[in-house]
Design goal:
This protein has 187 residues and is mainly alpha-helical. Helices cover 65% and strands 0% of the residues. The protein is built from ten helices and no strands.
Amino acid sequence: MSWIKESKLKGQDLPPLFQAVSLNAPALEALKQLNEAVAFGNSALSRVQEEAIAAVVAAANRCRHEAMTRAGFLRRHTQDATLTSQLLDDYTQADLDSADRQMLGFAVKLTREPGSVTREDVEDLRAAGFTDAQVLSIVLVTSLCNFMNRLADGLGVDVPPRYQASVQRWLTGPASHAEWLLRPKEA
């Protein structure tokens, strides 16, 4: 549920964020197509890398809905609740290889200080082993995730209680106590 009226779409089982956009059918269709084109295994990155970016961007933005949702996808693809929890808390302390740490650092910089990104940042990604197609995917996935975070927070989309309970069962470490992550949005 969101803070705005949603369309009653028959025969469509949409995630809460997509349901919140349902009043604008063309925007909903474009949003679905954009998600499929940029992420969900369709980028030059691995699905785990896509979901790691999504989780870290959501954590940087303190976007509860997207952090829980994307962390759920990441855990499903990695089968590693500890790593997923670490990424929600502090990716710099997570058990990652140097290339993925560089990728996530770039994604956080692009999220928090987009105007400070330089050619050197892209060169650092190349030096870490990323191709230009992968660099493009890092930027596209990061940008998409920031957009989705703004939609979720701007429309008041929250995590369904059953899903929240499921995530809370496997969260570990500091993430399992993070108030921003665990406290439901006010209705």
